[in-house]
Design a protein that fits this description.
six-stranded mixed beta sheet, alpha/beta, 246 residues
């Protein structure tokens, strides 16, 4: 059954309105009309089974038949801090990590970042990445939309990342703590950050700076993963270890 996200202000007692692009998609692409069922999500973790009551131009009025808690959202909140990769790699990162259950995505720049752009350029990219997230959420039937933040500097990223109960920083030169051990030691942690470096990895000084703030460098083993692979790989491991893949 088709699923659409609607802003909380568009809910009115037993009815909800869908307008604009989504309304056009429902009527013109999906060919839905009065009497057809639609799943609507409020973006706060609840799904509504609705039926189309009326189609008026580019606005659709739906009657709410049932409200249920969305069961596709993980209990653990994982924020991905992804150093901006070149080309379209970031689109792949946000798509796959959204499917795996990430709660938020924070792009940032590091010393070895290849991409060079101005504030306006990064702002346009952020809009595109958010659109990719929005589309992925619908496909995997999640109940909340992860938000892509504006691109941060390395120091700005660390100030935000250090606030998590557990924050992991995969680093190819780490020889002390592996990912599994770090997750086992964390126990039933429900707030996790993951920091992924650029194509060239992190400077040693950057890792030291992060470690001084309580962020945990970890090794992912002997194989070196690409930046567009590492985030999804670690996220999948976190979800599995914290029992979120049931």
């Amino acid at each position: 059954m088709p699923k659409f996200f609607v802003l909380p202000q568009d809910f009115h007692q037993d009815f909800v309105k869908i307008s604009g692009f989504d309304a056009k998609h429902i009527t013109k692409v999906l060919r839905k009309s009065s009497g057809d069922d639609i799943i609507v999500c409020d973006g706060c973790g609840f799904d509504y089974h609705t039926v189309i009551q009326e189609v008026c131009g580019q606005e659709i009025l739906l009657k709410i038949l049932d409200k249920q808690k969305n069961l596709c959202e993980p209990e653990v909140k994982v924020t991905l801090y992804q150093c901006v990769p070149k080309g379209s790699k970031m689109d792949e990162v946000v798509q796959k990590c959204t499917e795996l259950g990430v709660s938020a995505i924070v792009p940032f720049l590091s010393h070895r970042t290849v991409v060079k752009d101005d504030k306006e350029g990064f702002a346009k990219k952020t809009v595109r990445w958010q659109k990719t997230v929005d589309e992925s959420v619908k496909q995997c039937m999640r109940g909340m939309i992860p938000r892509v933040s504006p691109v941060l500097s390395f120091s700005e990223m660390l100030e935000r990342a250090k606030q998590h109960t557990l924050c992991l920083m995969p680093y190819e030169n780490c020889r002390t703590t592996d990912l599994k051990t770090a997750l086992q030691q964390a126990g039933d942690c429900l707030d996790v950050g993951i920091i992924i470096g650029s194509e060239g990895g992190f400077e040693e000084s950057e890792v030291e700076q992060a470690e001084n703030l309580g962020i945990v460098p970890v090794t992912l083993g002997r194989r070196i993963l690409r930046t567009e692979t590492a985030g999804a790989a670690v996220l999948g491991c976190v979800m599995y270890q914290l029992d979120q893949m049931k």
